[in-house]
Amino acid sequence: MFNTLLIANRGEIACRVAATARRMGLRTVAVYSDADARARHVAACDTAVHIGGSEPRASYLRADAILEAARQTGAQAIHPGYGFLSENEDFAEACAAAGIVFVGPPNSAIAAMGSKSAAKTLMEKAGVPLVPGYHGDNQEPAFLQEQADDIGYPVLIKASAGGGGKGMRIVESTGQFAEALASCKREAASSFGDDKVLIERYLQKPRHIEIQVFADTHGNCVYLFERDCSVQRRHQKVVEEAPAPGMTEERRSAMGEAAVAAARAVSYVGAGTVEFIVEPDGRFYFMEMNTRLQVEHPVTEMITGHDLVEWQLRVAAGQPLPVSQQDLTITGHAIEARIYAENPDNGFLPSIGTLGTLRFPPHVEFTDGDIRVDGGVKAGDTITPFYDPMIAKLIVRGSDRDQALARMGRVLGEIRCVGVQTNIAFLKRLIEDQAFAQADLDTGLIERRHDALFPPAAPASEDVLALAVAALLARQGMASSDTPRAQAPADPWSVPDGWRVSGDYAQAFGLIEDSTHHEITIEHVGQRWTLMVNNQALAFDWTVTGAADNDMKVRVRLDGHDAMATVIIADGRAHVFAAGGIKTLQIHDAVAHADDESSAHDGGLTAPMPGKIISLTVKAGDKVSRGDALLVMEAMKMEHTITAPADGTVEEVFFDVGDQVTDGAELISISQ
């Protein structure tokens, strides 16, 4: 076994590998970019080496810098995590040439499976069923369009070297093909340095089921059962679970044996995942093989009780697999939810900002326990535009699927995250959705259940408004409606208890929710507090415990009924966590907002997030129609097309291709 391990990655996987390596007694080395100097994975390792700028191409994709860091620190092995260089055959070969162990398969296996086209050809020869499509080398746009027309629409364009949903487009008709192909190729070239694509028939209502395989250098290869990864957005997984609902032992065995055969066909070593697309009648087709550890590997660990990262390190050191196929069993049911800084109500666009608060309910790391959190960021960290906006992975286990679902829903409702928009509330709706609960799964579930998963926002209830007001009162020093006055204070005017010479007291609060302005007034007459909201006068009592602004536990009573919440006040907003959800209310400052109307900006289209302009399709003077593509931005490794909101004429374009833009920057001015 080697004694020093360099982790050529960042985020939660780097933290995960560091913890397992340390438990095994290994010394660990982190690498980091300019943006990650104070990142959690850096602190998790014994030493760290700076490798370049914030953009991946200037740091985490620099094989030369990572190998130099290994030489400097005496690292004998490199764990690539997932993403970045984890499936780069040249990097694996360079490690071998430098005498450094690459914790992954041999470069020949990466090469064989790294190209989706080549892998499908290999699987076709091995007799593994494939989805009808074109996987060849001819990449002429006109030829590819002919292939798509012959296959029949809808078709799926997929980056041959891709993964993670990048470089992938569904095309519904021949007229959409050319634009989708160009976009797909741009994204593939940007993400993988290879714009080659393949074309496949797009299956209707398919499930995405993958098999975890593991092989060693002694000829042993096993499958650790399956994971259902059907629930996706933008072709990226949202929720994964193991075992797959409705899986029969016969089909599990057939798919597992096919996955092992695929691994053996390329002399595979280490952890890998063979992904299948499965039709409603149970027929399955080979999609691709990921020659690395997957983001969703924790659900496999939870149901098998085995630490796959430890297996990786031991296999890389030449040790045999610790168990044989007959030793592997399934215990319980596990579900993983990926928590992202993103806005589900706006096309899941990433959210940039600082995590002012990030707190999870009691949990464990790794396999020992029923609630687990794998995270790479902490409170105070910033979600930047340079990397994937994942905050953490929440993994739960139950004795069966129903218990796991109930446990996941409860824990999601107990997470406290403030500072960026997140998908937590969306995940809770998804977990509790009728179709998901009944395992009516397919890759189009989110679109199919759109109305249920994206309900119109309900206005803040009287309870929520009262809870926010109680927190604001506590911030003023009034912790409860019966706060005792100080005994003979030296300066009675400095005691914030609401006392007035007349004995009566009134105060107004303004809380803004989207475009709705709530005016709330509280009054104290005699011994009675009254809250005036929505033209109603309600008897009002409150109690607040905890630090002012941060993590206040609030309890209110309105006309005899109680409501409870955690309230966090930050950045001029009250974040009310109640009944498993969150309401965010802006605290209105009449002085600060006095001239809002006079300073309102009527400019043009603005950037929805920080990013880079990679394509412009218009110039000043062009006529545009509603829905026309104007430009394409790249942010967090994804393309985002900005379209015209209405018919008009382009007055000015403020940026050029290649320019970096900030969140909210005006991009194009259009007159109507």
Q: What count of domains describes the coordinates?
A: 5
Report the portion of residues in β strands.
25-35%
Strand adjacency order, main sheet: 14-13-10-11-12-15-22-20
Which stretches are low in confidence, meaning pLDDT under 50 for 5 or more residues running? 591-603
- The count of β-strands is 39
Quote the CATH topology of the largest domain: D-amino Acid Aminotransferase, Chain A, domain 1
Description:
By secondary structure, the protein is α+β, with helices and mostly antiparallel strands. The protein has 5 domains: 4-103, 3-Layer(aba) Sandwich (Rossmann fold), CATH 3.40.50.20; 132-201, Dna Ligase, domain 1 (2-Layer Sandwich), CATH 3.30.1490; 207-453, D-amino Acid Aminotransferase, Chain A, domain 1 (2-Layer Sandwich); 462-484 and 496-587, Glycoprotein, Type 4 Pilin (2-Layer Sandwich), CATH 3.30.700; 605-671, OB fold (Dihydrolipoamide Acetyltransferase, E2P) (Beta Barrel), CATH 2.40.50. The protein is built from 17 helices and 39 strands. Strands 14-13-10-11-12-15-22-20 form an 8-stranded antiparallel beta sheet. The chain has an 8-stranded antiparallel β-barrel with strand order 24-25-26-27-28-29-30-31. Strands 3-2-1-4-5 form a 5-stranded parallel beta sheet. Strand 35 (629-635) and strand 36 form a beta hairpin. Helix 4 packs antiparallel against helix 5, helix 7 (141-151) crosses helix 8 (174-192) and helix 12 runs antiparallel to helix 13. The longest helix has 19 residues, at 174-192.
